[in-house]
Design brief:
By secondary structure, the chain is of the alpha/beta class. Helix 1 (16-29) crosses helix 12. Strand 3 (73-74) and strand 4 (80-83) form a beta hairpin. 42% of the residues lie in helices and 18% in strands. It has helices at 16-29, 44-48, 58-62, 68-71, 92-95, 105-110, 130-138, 150-170, 190-202, 219-223, 231-234, 239-254, and strands at 3-7, 34-38, 73-74, 80-83, 119-123, 141-147, 176-185, 210-216. The two termini are 13 Å apart. The chain has one domain: 3-Layer(aba) Sandwich (Rossmann fold). Strands 3-4-2-5-1-6-7-8 form an 8-stranded mixed β-sheet, sandwiched between helices. The relative contact order is 0.20.
Length: 255
C-alpha cells in the first residue's frame, strides 16, 4: 500500500496546487506510480495537467455513482494519473453536512485503489471545511505549503496547531505532519527571510518538520498550468523545476 499525502493550508494562493502537481510529476518521473486527487471544486489541479472538463469525477465517486476506475484519467506525465474535480464538488459541502460519517467519504472512495499507487497526493480547497477534513482523514501525512508572507504564516499556525491536532485525536490517529515547505520565496525582500527565520524559531525543537528546499517565485511555474503541463515537462531547466525536483526527492525520502 502506497503513501497518501494531503496538501493543505486554509489560506489560498500559497502554491498548494502548484506543489501538488509538480511534486507528483517529479515523483512519477522517478518511476513511482502517482495518483493526483483534485479535491477542490475549482478544479485547478485538473486544469494544471490539461483536464479542463470531465464527464465523471471525484464527486461521482464520492456519492457512489461511479468507481474510481470510471473517473481516473491519464496526465501528460508518464506514471501519473488524475482523479479530476469540477464545480459539482461544491455541492458536497452541503450534502455531507448531515451525513453519517461525513468525514470518511474520501477515505472510503480511495480504499479500493490504494494498493495501485506508490503515492496518492490530495489537493484540498483553501478552507477548513468538510472537504479538507475528508482529506486529512484519508491521508497518512499532511504537507503544508507556506507562502513567505506574514498573513500566510498567521493562517498556517492556526491550522497546524488546532485543526490537525483535533483530527489526530478524534478522526485519524495515524495522521502525521509530513513537512512544512516554503513557497514563493523572494530573496530580494526582507519579509521572505524573516518568515523563514520565524518558522525555524517556532520549530527549533523539531527542525525535521521543515523541508530544506525552498521554492522561489518563478514566472515559468506560473505559466505551466495554462499549458496543461507540470513544470518538468514545460521547462525542466528553469529554477522552479530544479527546486521542485529537489523537493520531490525530499518528499520521497521522508514520506
Amino acid at each position: 500500500m502506497g503513501q497518501t499525502v494531503v496538501f493543505a493550508n486554509q489560506k489560498g494562493g500559497v502554491g498548494k496546487t502548484t506543489s501538488t502537481v509538480n511534486i507528483g510529476a517529479f515523483i512519477a518521473a522517478a518511476g513511482r506510480r502517482v495518483l493526483l486527487v483534485d479535491f477542490d471544486p475549482q478544479g485547478n489541479l485538473s486544469s494544471s495537467v490539461g483536464i479542463r472538463k470531465s464527464k465523471v469525477g471525484v464527486y461521482d465517486v464520492l456519492i457512489g455513482q461511479a468507481s474510481p476506475a470510471d473517473a481516473i484519467v491519464k496526465t501528460p506525465q508518464e506514471n501519473m494519473e488524475l482523479l479530476p474535480s469540477d464545480l459539482r464538488l461544491s455541492g458536497a459541502t452541503v450534502e455531507l453536512v448531515g451525513a453519517e460519517g461525513r468525514e470518511q467519504y474520501l477515505k472510503k472512495a480511495l480504499s479500493s485503489i490504494r494498493d495501485q499507487y506508490d503515492y496518492i497526493l490530495i489537493d484540498c480547497p483553501p478552507s477548513l471545511g468538510v472537504l479538507t477534513i475528508n482529506g486529512f482523514v484519508a491521508a497518512q501525512s499532511v504537507i503544508v505549503p507556506l507562502q513567505c508572507e506574514f498573513f500566510a504564516l498567521e493562517g498556517f499556525l492556526n491550522m497546524l496547531f488546532q485543526t490537525i491536532k483535533r483530527i489526530q485525536k478524534s478522526l485519524n490517529t495515524r495522521l502525521t505532519v509530513g513537512g512544512i515547505m516554503f513557497t514563493m520565496y523572494d530573496s530580494r525582500t526582507r519579509l521572505s527571510q524573516e518568515v523563514i527565520q520565524q518558522v525555524k524559531g517556532a520549530f527549533k525543537a523539531h527542525p525535521e518538520l521543515l523541508f530544506k528546499t525552498v521554492i522561489p517565485r518563478n514566472i515559468r511555474l506560473s505559466e505551466a498550468p495554462s499549458h496543461g503541463l507540470p513544470i518538468n515537462l514545460y521547462d525542466p531547466n528553469c529554477v522552479g523545476a530544479r527546486s521542485y525536483a529537489a523537493l520531490a526527492d525530499e518528499v520521497m525520502k521522508r514520506v
